[in-house]
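[job 4471] stage=fold_predict status=RUNNING
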Amino acid sequence: MPIYQAPIRDYQFILSELLNIYQYQELAGFDQVDPELVDAILQGVADFTTDIMLPLNAVGDHQGCKLVDGKVITPDGFKDAYKQYVENGWATLTCDPEYGGQGLPEVVGTFATEMKTATNMAFAMYPGLTHGAYSAIHVHGSDALKQKYLAKLVSGEWTGTMNLTESHAGTDLALLRTKAKPLGDDKFAISGEKIFISSGDHDLAENIIHLVLARLPDAPEGVKGISLFAVPKFLVNADGSLGAANTLAATGLEHKMGIHGNSTCVMLFDNAVGELVGAAHQGLRAMFTMMNQARLGVGIQGLGVSDIAYQNALVYAKDRIQGRALSGVKEADKAADSILVHGDVRRMLLSQKSFNEGTRALMGQQALWLDQAERESDPVKAKQASALAALFTPIVKGFVTDQGFKACVDAQQVYGGHGYINEWGMEQFVRDIRIAMIYEGTNGVQALDLVGRKLLADKGATLNLWSDMVKQFIGQHNGNEQMKPFIAGLMDAAGDLERATGYIAKSAVTNPDLIGAASMAYMQLFGISALAWMWARIAATSLAALDKGTDEASFYQAKLKTGAFYMGYWVSQTRSLRKQIEASSQQIVDFNDADF
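[job 4471] inference complete, writing C-alpha coordinates
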Protein backbone atom coordinates (compact mmCIF):
# COMPACT_ATOMS: atom_id res chain seq x y z
CA MET A 1 0.00 0.00 0.00
CA PRO A 2 1.29 3.50 -0.76
CA ILE A 3 2.54 5.58 2.15
CA TYR A 4 1.68 9.19 2.94
CA GLN A 5 3.25 11.81 5.18
CA ALA A 6 1.07 14.89 5.54
CA PRO A 7 3.20 17.99 4.75
CA ILE A 8 2.40 19.67 8.07
CA ARG A 9 5.68 21.59 8.23
CA ASP A 10 5.04 23.03 4.79
CA TYR A 11 1.56 24.12 5.87
CA GLN A 12 3.04 25.85 8.91
CA PHE A 13 5.58 27.62 6.72
CA ILE A 14 2.94 28.86 4.27
CA LEU A 15 0.39 29.92 6.88
CA SER A 16 2.67 31.45 9.50
CA GLU A 17 5.59 32.77 7.46
CA LEU A 18 4.86 33.10 3.74
CA LEU A 19 1.27 34.36 3.98
CA ASN A 20 1.31 35.22 7.69
CA ILE A 21 -2.45 34.72 7.95
CA TYR A 22 -2.44 35.63 11.64
CA GLN A 23 -1.83 39.28 10.79
CA TYR A 24 -5.34 39.58 9.29
CA GLN A 25 -7.16 40.08 12.55
CA GLU A 26 -9.59 42.48 10.86
CA LEU A 27 -11.01 39.69 8.69
CA ALA A 28 -14.11 38.09 10.18
CA GLY A 29 -13.21 34.83 11.90
CA PHE A 30 -9.44 35.27 11.62
CA ASP A 31 -9.30 36.58 15.19
CA GLN A 32 -10.48 33.15 16.35
CA VAL A 33 -7.47 31.23 15.01
CA ASP A 34 -3.89 30.97 16.16
CA PRO A 35 -1.01 28.69 15.17
CA GLU A 36 -1.67 26.22 17.98
CA LEU A 37 -5.31 25.75 17.00
CA VAL A 38 -4.54 25.47 13.30
CA ASP A 39 -1.73 22.98 13.94
CA ALA A 40 -4.04 20.84 16.07
CA ILE A 41 -6.73 20.81 13.37
CA LEU A 42 -4.34 20.01 10.55
CA GLN A 43 -2.69 17.25 12.58
CA GLY A 44 -6.11 15.80 13.38
CA VAL A 45 -7.01 15.75 9.71
CA ALA A 46 -3.61 14.24 8.93
CA ASP A 47 -4.21 11.41 11.40
CA PHE A 48 -7.71 10.70 10.06
CA THR A 49 -6.71 10.75 6.41
CA THR A 50 -3.60 8.63 6.92
CA ASP A 51 -5.13 6.08 9.29
CA ILE A 52 -8.68 5.81 7.95
CA MET A 53 -8.92 7.15 4.39
CA LEU A 54 -5.63 5.94 2.89
CA PRO A 55 -6.19 2.19 3.58
CA LEU A 56 -9.58 2.47 1.82
CA ASN A 57 -8.15 4.00 -1.35
CA ALA A 58 -7.22 0.70 -2.99
CA VAL A 59 -10.38 -0.94 -1.62
CA GLY A 60 -12.52 1.67 -3.32
CA ASP A 61 -10.57 1.29 -6.56
CA HIS A 62 -10.85 -2.51 -6.64
CA GLN A 63 -14.46 -2.85 -5.50
CA GLY A 64 -16.03 0.28 -6.92
CA CYS A 65 -19.63 1.23 -6.28
CA LYS A 66 -22.55 -1.07 -7.09
CA LEU A 67 -26.12 -0.31 -8.11
CA VAL A 68 -28.38 -2.87 -6.43
CA ASP A 69 -32.18 -2.67 -6.65
CA GLY A 70 -32.01 1.00 -7.52
CA LYS A 71 -29.66 1.89 -4.67
CA VAL A 72 -25.94 2.59 -4.78
CA ILE A 73 -23.70 0.63 -2.39
CA THR A 74 -20.28 2.13 -1.67
CA PRO A 75 -17.13 0.01 -1.20
CA ASP A 76 -16.40 -1.83 2.05
CA GLY A 77 -15.39 0.53 4.84
CA PHE A 78 -16.61 3.74 3.21
CA LYS A 79 -19.81 3.94 5.25
CA ASP A 80 -18.05 3.51 8.61
CA ALA A 81 -15.29 5.92 7.59
CA TYR A 82 -17.83 8.55 6.59
CA LYS A 83 -19.68 8.14 9.88
CA GLN A 84 -16.42 8.75 11.74
CA TYR A 85 -15.66 11.71 9.45
CA VAL A 86 -18.96 13.33 10.45
CA GLU A 87 -18.59 12.50 14.15
CA ASN A 88 -15.11 14.04 14.19
CA GLY A 89 -16.56 17.29 12.83
CA TRP A 90 -14.30 17.44 9.78
CA ALA A 91 -17.23 18.44 7.55
CA THR A 92 -17.83 21.64 9.54
CA LEU A 93 -14.40 23.30 9.38
CA THR A 94 -15.00 26.32 7.13
CA CYS A 95 -18.80 26.55 7.33
CA ASP A 96 -20.86 29.34 8.88
CA PRO A 97 -21.16 29.01 12.69
CA GLU A 98 -24.82 30.05 12.40
CA TYR A 99 -25.50 26.62 10.92
CA GLY A 100 -23.11 24.60 13.06
CA GLY A 101 -19.85 25.28 11.28
CA GLN A 102 -16.52 26.19 12.84
CA GLY A 103 -16.04 29.28 10.67
CA LEU A 104 -12.36 28.62 9.96
CA PRO A 105 -10.71 30.50 7.09
CA GLU A 106 -10.74 28.86 3.68
CA VAL A 107 -6.95 29.06 3.67
CA VAL A 108 -6.91 26.52 6.51
CA GLY A 109 -9.64 24.35 5.01
CA THR A 110 -7.78 24.20 1.70
CA PHE A 111 -4.91 22.28 3.24
CA ALA A 112 -7.30 19.93 5.03
CA THR A 113 -8.79 19.23 1.61
CA GLU A 114 -5.36 18.53 0.15
CA MET A 115 -4.76 15.77 2.68
CA LYS A 116 -8.16 14.24 1.99
CA THR A 117 -7.72 14.21 -1.76
CA ALA A 118 -4.15 12.91 -1.49
CA THR A 119 -5.14 9.90 0.56
CA ASN A 120 -8.46 9.01 -1.05
CA MET A 121 -9.67 11.23 -3.86
CA ALA A 122 -12.85 9.20 -4.48
CA PHE A 123 -13.95 9.30 -0.83
CA ALA A 124 -13.09 12.99 -0.49
CA MET A 125 -15.44 13.84 -3.32
CA TYR A 126 -18.53 13.01 -1.23
CA PRO A 127 -17.95 15.80 1.33
CA GLY A 128 -16.36 17.98 -1.35
CA LEU A 129 -19.55 18.11 -3.45
CA THR A 130 -21.54 18.65 -0.27
CA HIS A 131 -19.51 21.74 0.59
CA GLY A 132 -20.22 23.14 -2.86
CA ALA A 133 -23.97 22.61 -2.42
CA TYR A 134 -23.75 24.26 0.99
CA SER A 135 -21.98 27.27 -0.55
CA ALA A 136 -24.59 27.76 -3.29
CA ILE A 137 -27.51 27.64 -0.86
CA HIS A 138 -25.66 29.76 1.70
CA VAL A 139 -25.02 32.53 -0.83
CA HIS A 140 -28.17 32.38 -2.95
CA GLY A 141 -30.84 30.47 -1.02
CA SER A 142 -33.82 32.00 0.77
CA ASP A 143 -33.88 32.07 4.56
CA ALA A 144 -36.40 29.22 4.51
CA LEU A 145 -34.15 27.12 2.28
CA LYS A 146 -31.14 27.81 4.50
CA GLN A 147 -33.03 26.78 7.62
CA LYS A 148 -34.24 23.65 5.89
CA TYR A 149 -30.96 22.34 4.52
CA LEU A 150 -27.81 24.06 5.76
CA ALA A 151 -27.38 22.62 9.25
CA LYS A 152 -27.59 19.05 7.92
CA LEU A 153 -25.25 19.81 5.01
CA VAL A 154 -22.78 21.53 7.33
CA SER A 155 -22.68 18.60 9.73
CA GLY A 156 -22.35 16.11 6.89
CA GLU A 157 -25.45 14.21 7.99
CA TRP A 158 -26.82 14.99 4.52
CA THR A 159 -24.72 15.28 1.39
CA GLY A 160 -25.08 17.35 -1.77
CA THR A 161 -24.50 17.15 -5.51
CA MET A 162 -24.48 19.38 -8.55
CA ASN A 163 -26.52 18.29 -11.60
CA LEU A 164 -25.51 20.14 -14.76
CA THR A 165 -24.54 17.80 -17.57
CA GLU A 166 -26.96 16.10 -19.95
CA SER A 167 -26.02 13.60 -22.65
CA HIS A 168 -26.35 16.26 -25.37
CA ALA A 169 -25.27 19.26 -23.27
CA GLY A 170 -21.92 19.37 -21.53
CA THR A 171 -20.05 22.66 -21.50
CA ASP A 172 -22.82 24.35 -23.51
CA LEU A 173 -25.48 24.52 -20.82
CA ALA A 174 -27.70 26.59 -23.10
CA LEU A 175 -28.73 23.26 -24.66
CA LEU A 176 -30.07 21.63 -21.50
CA ARG A 177 -33.62 20.24 -21.62
CA THR A 178 -34.50 19.47 -17.98
CA LYS A 179 -37.83 21.13 -17.16
CA ALA A 180 -39.25 22.72 -14.02
CA LYS A 181 -43.04 23.04 -13.73
CA PRO A 182 -44.54 25.28 -11.00
CA LEU A 183 -46.65 23.36 -8.49
CA GLY A 184 -47.59 26.31 -6.26
CA ASP A 185 -46.44 26.99 -2.70
CA ASP A 186 -42.89 27.66 -4.04
CA LYS A 187 -42.55 24.08 -5.20
CA PHE A 188 -41.63 22.84 -8.68
CA ALA A 189 -41.79 19.52 -10.50
CA ILE A 190 -38.37 18.74 -11.99
CA SER A 191 -38.15 16.34 -14.93
CA GLY A 192 -35.11 15.34 -16.94
CA GLU A 193 -32.01 13.18 -17.07
CA LYS A 194 -28.53 14.20 -15.92
CA ILE A 195 -25.30 12.28 -16.47
CA PHE A 196 -21.84 12.21 -14.86
CA ILE A 197 -23.29 13.12 -11.45
CA SER A 198 -20.55 12.59 -8.85
CA SER A 199 -21.88 11.25 -5.52
CA GLY A 200 -25.32 11.06 -7.15
CA ASP A 201 -26.49 8.25 -4.90
CA HIS A 202 -24.85 6.31 -2.09
CA ASP A 203 -25.39 4.75 1.33
CA LEU A 204 -23.23 7.15 3.35
CA ALA A 205 -25.91 9.64 4.44
CA GLU A 206 -29.66 9.52 5.04
CA ASN A 207 -30.47 12.24 2.51
CA ILE A 208 -28.90 13.79 -0.59
CA ILE A 209 -29.71 17.32 -1.73
CA HIS A 210 -29.36 17.61 -5.49
CA LEU A 211 -28.82 21.04 -6.98
CA VAL A 212 -30.33 20.77 -10.45
CA LEU A 213 -30.24 23.15 -13.40
CA ALA A 214 -33.57 23.26 -15.24
CA ARG A 215 -35.82 25.54 -17.32
CA LEU A 216 -39.09 27.10 -16.23
CA PRO A 217 -41.94 27.23 -18.79
CA ASP A 218 -41.46 30.97 -19.39
CA ALA A 219 -37.67 30.76 -19.57
CA PRO A 220 -35.90 32.74 -22.28
CA GLU A 221 -33.63 30.91 -24.69
CA GLY A 222 -29.98 30.20 -23.85
CA VAL A 223 -28.17 30.41 -20.55
CA LYS A 224 -30.32 33.35 -19.45
CA GLY A 225 -33.22 30.94 -19.08
CA ILE A 226 -31.64 28.52 -16.61
CA SER A 227 -32.80 28.23 -13.01
CA LEU A 228 -31.35 26.27 -10.09
CA PHE A 229 -33.39 23.99 -7.84
CA ALA A 230 -32.74 22.09 -4.61
CA VAL A 231 -34.20 18.61 -5.06
CA PRO A 232 -33.87 16.25 -2.07
CA LYS A 233 -33.69 12.47 -2.36
CA PHE A 234 -36.20 12.33 0.49
CA LEU A 235 -38.70 15.12 1.04
CA VAL A 236 -38.25 17.07 4.27
CA ASN A 237 -41.17 17.56 6.62
CA ALA A 238 -41.95 20.87 8.35
CA ASP A 239 -40.32 19.63 11.56
CA GLY A 240 -37.10 18.70 9.70
CA SER A 241 -37.74 14.97 9.70
CA LEU A 242 -37.56 12.94 6.52
CA GLY A 243 -40.72 12.24 4.59
CA ALA A 244 -41.48 10.23 1.48
CA ALA A 245 -38.94 9.37 -1.18
CA ASN A 246 -38.83 11.94 -3.97
CA THR A 247 -39.45 10.78 -7.53
CA LEU A 248 -35.83 10.62 -8.60
CA ALA A 249 -33.37 7.77 -8.98
CA ALA A 250 -29.90 6.75 -10.03
CA THR A 251 -30.61 4.67 -13.12
CA GLY A 252 -27.03 3.77 -13.87
CA LEU A 253 -23.40 4.00 -12.79
CA GLU A 254 -20.78 5.24 -15.22
CA HIS A 255 -17.95 2.78 -15.97
CA LYS A 256 -14.89 4.95 -15.48
CA MET A 257 -11.13 5.07 -15.87
CA GLY A 258 -10.64 5.95 -12.18
CA ILE A 259 -12.22 7.28 -8.96
CA HIS A 260 -14.12 3.98 -8.74
CA GLY A 261 -14.93 4.58 -5.07
CA ASN A 262 -17.09 7.55 -5.95
CA SER A 263 -20.53 6.92 -7.41
CA THR A 264 -20.80 8.69 -10.76
CA CYS A 265 -24.47 8.34 -11.62
CA VAL A 266 -27.02 8.79 -14.34
CA MET A 267 -29.83 10.59 -12.49
CA LEU A 268 -33.48 10.59 -13.61
CA PHE A 269 -35.85 13.21 -12.22
CA ASP A 270 -39.51 12.34 -12.86
CA ASN A 271 -41.62 15.24 -11.60
CA ALA A 272 -39.41 15.34 -8.53
CA VAL A 273 -40.30 18.09 -6.07
CA GLY A 274 -37.74 20.87 -5.82
CA GLU A 275 -37.40 24.45 -4.61
CA LEU A 276 -35.85 27.44 -6.34
CA VAL A 277 -32.35 28.48 -5.27
CA GLY A 278 -31.95 32.19 -5.93
CA ALA A 279 -34.01 34.05 -8.50
CA ALA A 280 -35.76 32.49 -11.47
CA HIS A 281 -33.61 32.38 -14.63
CA GLN A 282 -30.53 33.20 -12.52
CA GLY A 283 -29.50 29.62 -11.90
CA LEU A 284 -26.18 29.80 -13.67
CA ARG A 285 -25.08 32.61 -11.37
CA ALA A 286 -25.95 30.49 -8.34
CA MET A 287 -24.38 27.37 -9.82
CA PHE A 288 -21.15 29.23 -10.54
CA THR A 289 -20.78 29.80 -6.79
CA MET A 290 -20.71 26.03 -6.46
CA MET A 291 -18.60 25.50 -9.57
CA ASN A 292 -15.93 28.00 -8.56
CA GLN A 293 -15.71 26.29 -5.17
CA ALA A 294 -15.42 23.00 -7.03
CA ARG A 295 -12.72 24.33 -9.37
CA LEU A 296 -10.51 25.20 -6.42
CA GLY A 297 -11.23 21.74 -5.03
CA VAL A 298 -10.30 20.10 -8.32
CA GLY A 299 -7.05 22.04 -8.42
CA ILE A 300 -6.30 20.77 -4.92
CA GLN A 301 -6.94 17.26 -6.22
CA GLY A 302 -4.23 17.86 -8.81
CA LEU A 303 -1.84 18.90 -6.05
CA GLY A 304 -2.82 16.24 -3.50
CA VAL A 305 -2.54 13.23 -5.79
CA SER A 306 0.65 14.62 -7.33
CA ASP A 307 2.18 14.92 -3.85
CA ILE A 308 1.34 11.41 -2.66
CA ALA A 309 2.64 10.04 -5.97
CA TYR A 310 5.86 12.00 -5.50
CA GLN A 311 6.31 10.82 -1.91
CA ASN A 312 6.08 7.18 -2.95
CA ALA A 313 8.30 7.64 -6.00
CA LEU A 314 10.98 9.20 -3.80
CA VAL A 315 10.90 6.31 -1.34
CA TYR A 316 11.08 3.84 -4.22
CA ALA A 317 13.98 5.69 -5.87
CA LYS A 318 15.99 5.55 -2.66
CA ASP A 319 15.29 1.84 -2.16
CA ARG A 320 15.47 0.44 -5.69
CA ILE A 321 18.99 -0.45 -6.85
CA GLN A 322 19.88 -0.60 -10.52
CA GLY A 323 23.08 0.27 -12.36
CA ARG A 324 25.86 2.54 -11.17
CA ALA A 325 26.22 6.30 -11.19
CA LEU A 326 28.04 7.61 -14.26
CA SER A 327 30.57 9.30 -11.99
CA GLY A 328 31.43 6.04 -10.24
CA VAL A 329 30.17 3.65 -7.59
CA LYS A 330 28.21 5.34 -4.80
CA GLU A 331 27.11 2.35 -2.72
CA ALA A 332 29.98 -0.11 -2.79
CA ASP A 333 28.37 -2.41 -0.25
CA LYS A 334 25.48 -3.09 -2.63
CA ALA A 335 25.25 -4.86 -5.97
CA ALA A 336 24.14 -1.61 -7.58
CA ASP A 337 23.43 2.00 -6.65
CA SER A 338 19.93 3.27 -5.90
CA ILE A 339 18.24 4.71 -8.93
CA LEU A 340 18.26 8.12 -7.21
CA VAL A 341 21.82 8.55 -8.54
CA HIS A 342 20.58 8.65 -12.13
CA GLY A 343 20.10 12.08 -13.66
CA ASP A 344 16.76 11.46 -15.30
CA VAL A 345 15.25 10.04 -12.13
CA ARG A 346 16.47 13.08 -10.23
CA ARG A 347 15.02 15.34 -12.94
CA MET A 348 11.58 13.77 -12.64
CA LEU A 349 11.57 13.90 -8.85
CA LEU A 350 12.79 17.49 -8.71
CA SER A 351 10.22 18.53 -11.29
CA GLN A 352 7.49 17.02 -9.09
CA LYS A 353 8.87 18.42 -5.84
CA SER A 354 9.26 21.97 -7.13
CA PHE A 355 5.83 21.89 -8.74
CA ASN A 356 4.12 20.53 -5.61
CA GLU A 357 5.68 22.96 -3.15
CA GLY A 358 5.17 26.00 -5.38
CA THR A 359 1.60 24.98 -6.11
CA ARG A 360 0.83 24.46 -2.43
CA ALA A 361 1.88 28.05 -1.78
CA LEU A 362 -0.25 29.28 -4.70
CA MET A 363 -3.27 27.36 -3.39
CA GLY A 364 -2.79 29.05 -0.04
CA GLN A 365 -2.67 32.46 -1.72
CA GLN A 366 -5.80 31.70 -3.76
CA ALA A 367 -7.69 30.60 -0.65
CA LEU A 368 -6.57 33.72 1.21
CA TRP A 369 -7.90 35.89 -1.62
CA LEU A 370 -11.22 34.08 -1.35
CA ASP A 371 -11.25 34.70 2.40
CA GLN A 372 -10.52 38.38 1.87
CA ALA A 373 -13.22 38.65 -0.79
CA GLU A 374 -15.79 37.23 1.63
CA ARG A 375 -14.62 38.56 5.00
CA GLU A 376 -12.96 41.92 4.28
CA SER A 377 -14.95 44.92 5.55
CA ASP A 378 -13.20 47.35 3.18
CA PRO A 379 -15.17 47.03 -0.09
CA VAL A 380 -12.22 48.13 -2.23
CA LYS A 381 -9.92 45.46 -0.78
CA ALA A 382 -12.69 42.86 -1.00
CA LYS A 383 -13.30 43.68 -4.65
CA GLN A 384 -9.60 43.45 -5.50
CA ALA A 385 -9.25 40.11 -3.74
CA SER A 386 -12.34 38.78 -5.53
CA ALA A 387 -10.96 39.89 -8.89
CA LEU A 388 -7.58 38.26 -8.25
CA ALA A 389 -9.23 35.00 -7.15
CA ALA A 390 -11.36 35.02 -10.30
CA LEU A 391 -8.29 35.64 -12.49
CA PHE A 392 -6.40 32.75 -10.92
CA THR A 393 -9.29 30.25 -10.86
CA PRO A 394 -8.44 28.87 -14.34
CA ILE A 395 -4.81 28.57 -13.23
CA VAL A 396 -5.51 26.63 -10.05
CA LYS A 397 -7.96 24.38 -11.90
CA GLY A 398 -6.48 24.08 -15.39
CA PHE A 399 -2.73 24.53 -15.11
CA VAL A 400 -2.45 22.67 -11.80
CA THR A 401 -4.38 19.61 -12.94
CA ASP A 402 -2.52 19.49 -16.27
CA GLN A 403 0.83 19.54 -14.54
CA GLY A 404 -0.35 17.45 -11.59
CA PHE A 405 -1.31 14.67 -13.99
CA LYS A 406 2.07 14.88 -15.70
CA ALA A 407 3.75 14.75 -12.29
CA CYS A 408 1.85 11.54 -11.48
CA VAL A 409 2.97 10.04 -14.80
CA ASP A 410 6.57 10.97 -13.94
CA ALA A 411 6.18 9.38 -10.50
CA GLN A 412 4.88 6.23 -12.17
CA GLN A 413 7.83 6.34 -14.57
CA VAL A 414 10.27 6.34 -11.65
CA TYR A 415 8.95 2.87 -10.79
CA GLY A 416 9.65 1.52 -14.26
CA GLY A 417 7.65 -1.64 -14.88
CA HIS A 418 6.45 -1.76 -11.29
CA GLY A 419 4.64 1.53 -11.85
CA TYR A 420 2.39 -0.20 -14.35
CA ILE A 421 1.43 -2.89 -11.84
CA ASN A 422 -1.63 -2.27 -9.73
CA GLU A 423 -0.23 -3.46 -6.37
CA TRP A 424 2.11 -0.47 -6.09
CA GLY A 425 -0.74 2.02 -6.36
CA MET A 426 0.92 4.33 -8.85
CA GLU A 427 -1.29 3.44 -11.80
CA GLN A 428 -4.35 4.19 -9.66
CA PHE A 429 -3.04 7.70 -8.99
CA VAL A 430 -2.63 8.25 -12.75
CA ARG A 431 -6.12 6.92 -13.50
CA ASP A 432 -7.80 8.80 -10.66
CA ILE A 433 -6.32 12.22 -11.32
CA ARG A 434 -6.97 12.09 -15.09
CA ILE A 435 -10.57 13.17 -14.53
CA ALA A 436 -9.44 16.42 -12.91
CA MET A 437 -8.41 17.73 -16.33
CA ILE A 438 -11.94 17.08 -17.61
CA TYR A 439 -14.65 17.81 -15.07
CA GLU A 440 -15.76 21.21 -13.75
CA GLY A 441 -14.97 22.58 -17.19
CA THR A 442 -12.30 20.91 -19.31
CA ASN A 443 -8.91 22.53 -19.15
CA GLY A 444 -9.32 23.85 -22.69
CA VAL A 445 -12.41 25.67 -21.44
CA GLN A 446 -10.45 26.94 -18.43
CA ALA A 447 -7.78 28.32 -20.76
CA LEU A 448 -10.42 30.00 -22.93
CA ASP A 449 -12.03 31.47 -19.81
CA LEU A 450 -8.66 32.83 -18.70
CA VAL A 451 -7.97 34.63 -21.96
CA GLY A 452 -11.46 35.41 -23.23
CA ARG A 453 -13.12 36.41 -19.96
CA LYS A 454 -10.59 37.03 -17.23
CA LEU A 455 -7.98 38.76 -19.37
CA LEU A 456 -9.75 40.57 -22.20
CA ALA A 457 -13.15 41.28 -20.62
CA ASP A 458 -11.74 43.88 -18.23
CA LYS A 459 -9.03 44.94 -20.71
CA GLY A 460 -6.33 43.47 -18.52
CA ALA A 461 -7.17 45.50 -15.40
CA THR A 462 -6.91 42.56 -12.98
CA LEU A 463 -3.81 41.21 -14.70
CA ASN A 464 -2.25 44.66 -14.30
CA LEU A 465 -3.18 44.61 -10.62
CA TRP A 466 -1.27 41.36 -10.18
CA SER A 467 1.58 42.56 -12.41
CA ASP A 468 1.99 45.59 -10.17
CA MET A 469 2.31 43.25 -7.18
CA VAL A 470 5.03 41.31 -9.01
CA LYS A 471 6.89 44.49 -9.99
CA GLN A 472 6.68 45.82 -6.44
CA PHE A 473 8.17 42.57 -5.14
CA ILE A 474 10.98 42.72 -7.70
CA GLY A 475 11.74 46.30 -6.72
CA GLN A 476 11.93 45.38 -3.03
CA HIS A 477 14.40 42.52 -3.55
CA ASN A 478 16.32 43.42 -6.68
CA GLY A 479 19.31 44.63 -4.71
CA ASN A 480 19.67 41.46 -2.65
CA GLU A 481 22.52 39.38 -4.10
CA GLN A 482 21.11 36.14 -2.64
CA MET A 483 17.81 36.78 -4.38
CA LYS A 484 19.42 37.34 -7.79
CA PRO A 485 18.53 33.93 -9.37
CA PHE A 486 14.95 34.17 -8.14
CA ILE A 487 14.44 37.73 -9.30
CA ALA A 488 16.02 36.94 -12.67
CA GLY A 489 13.73 33.94 -13.13
CA LEU A 490 10.65 35.91 -12.11
CA MET A 491 11.55 38.75 -14.47
CA ASP A 492 12.03 36.32 -17.36
CA ALA A 493 8.66 34.68 -16.75
CA ALA A 494 6.84 37.97 -16.23
CA GLY A 495 8.43 39.42 -19.36
CA ASP A 496 7.36 36.48 -21.52
CA LEU A 497 3.85 36.65 -20.06
CA GLU A 498 3.62 40.37 -20.79
CA ARG A 499 4.75 39.93 -24.39
CA ALA A 500 2.36 37.02 -24.98
CA THR A 501 -0.49 39.02 -23.46
CA GLY A 502 0.23 41.95 -25.75
CA TYR A 503 0.34 39.71 -28.82
CA ILE A 504 -3.01 38.09 -28.02
CA ALA A 505 -4.71 41.37 -27.09
CA LYS A 506 -3.58 43.00 -30.33
CA SER A 507 -4.38 40.05 -32.58
CA ALA A 508 -7.77 39.28 -31.04
CA VAL A 509 -9.16 42.66 -32.12
CA THR A 510 -9.29 41.56 -35.76
CA ASN A 511 -9.21 37.78 -35.27
CA PRO A 512 -11.18 36.56 -32.22
CA ASP A 513 -10.59 32.89 -33.14
CA LEU A 514 -6.94 33.38 -32.25
CA ILE A 515 -7.96 33.56 -28.58
CA GLY A 516 -8.88 29.88 -28.57
CA ALA A 517 -5.82 28.90 -30.57
CA ALA A 518 -3.44 30.60 -28.16
CA SER A 519 -5.27 30.01 -24.87
CA MET A 520 -3.82 26.66 -23.75
CA ALA A 521 -0.20 27.70 -24.22
CA TYR A 522 -1.04 31.00 -22.53
CA MET A 523 -2.53 29.23 -19.49
CA GLN A 524 0.63 27.13 -19.13
CA LEU A 525 2.78 30.25 -19.47
CA PHE A 526 0.69 32.07 -16.88
CA GLY A 527 0.78 29.10 -14.51
CA ILE A 528 4.56 28.77 -14.66
CA SER A 529 4.86 32.53 -14.10
CA ALA A 530 2.50 32.37 -11.12
CA LEU A 531 4.60 29.66 -9.49
CA ALA A 532 7.75 31.68 -10.22
CA TRP A 533 6.14 34.50 -8.21
CA MET A 534 5.41 32.10 -5.37
CA TRP A 535 8.92 30.62 -5.43
CA ALA A 536 10.52 34.07 -5.36
CA ARG A 537 8.40 34.89 -2.31
CA ILE A 538 9.30 31.54 -0.72
CA ALA A 539 12.98 32.31 -1.29
CA ALA A 540 12.70 35.75 0.31
CA THR A 541 10.88 34.28 3.31
CA SER A 542 13.45 31.49 3.67
CA LEU A 543 16.41 33.87 3.47
CA ALA A 544 14.81 36.07 6.13
CA ALA A 545 14.44 33.06 8.42
CA LEU A 546 18.07 32.05 7.89
CA ASP A 547 19.27 35.61 8.52
CA LYS A 548 17.32 35.73 11.75
CA GLY A 549 18.80 32.43 12.92
CA THR A 550 16.95 29.14 13.14
CA ASP A 551 17.49 25.58 14.29
CA GLU A 552 15.73 24.43 11.09
CA ALA A 553 18.31 25.73 8.65
CA SER A 554 18.09 22.58 6.52
CA PHE A 555 14.38 23.18 5.89
CA TYR A 556 14.95 26.69 4.54
CA GLN A 557 18.06 25.72 2.60
CA ALA A 558 16.08 22.95 0.89
CA LYS A 559 13.47 25.54 -0.06
CA LEU A 560 16.15 27.71 -1.67
CA LYS A 561 17.63 24.78 -3.61
CA THR A 562 14.20 23.63 -4.79
CA GLY A 563 13.25 27.17 -5.80
CA ALA A 564 16.50 27.63 -7.70
CA PHE A 565 15.76 24.40 -9.60
CA TYR A 566 12.28 25.69 -10.43
CA MET A 567 13.72 28.88 -11.88
CA GLY A 568 16.21 26.94 -13.98
CA TYR A 569 13.98 24.07 -15.14
CA TRP A 570 10.40 25.33 -15.23
CA VAL A 571 10.85 29.03 -16.02
CA SER A 572 12.99 28.21 -19.05
CA GLN A 573 9.75 26.90 -20.62
CA THR A 574 8.07 30.32 -20.66
CA ARG A 575 10.19 31.49 -23.58
CA SER A 576 9.19 28.54 -25.77
CA LEU A 577 5.52 28.89 -24.78
CA ARG A 578 5.57 32.56 -25.72
CA LYS A 579 7.21 31.77 -29.05
CA GLN A 580 4.70 28.98 -29.63
CA ILE A 581 1.84 31.45 -29.14
CA GLU A 582 3.38 33.96 -31.54
CA ALA A 583 4.39 31.41 -34.17
CA SER A 584 1.54 28.90 -34.32
CA SER A 585 -1.69 30.56 -33.15
CA GLN A 586 -2.46 32.09 -36.54
CA GLN A 587 -1.55 28.81 -38.27
CA ILE A 588 -4.08 26.98 -36.11
CA VAL A 589 -6.79 29.44 -37.12
CA ASP A 590 -5.88 29.36 -40.83
CA PHE A 591 -5.65 25.58 -41.20
CA ASN A 592 -8.36 24.46 -43.63
CA ASP A 593 -10.93 21.99 -42.35
CA ALA A 594 -10.36 19.79 -45.39
CA ASP A 595 -6.65 19.49 -44.54
CA PHE A 596 -7.18 17.72 -41.24
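[job 4471] summary: The first helix runs from residue 8 to 18.
[job 4471] exit 0
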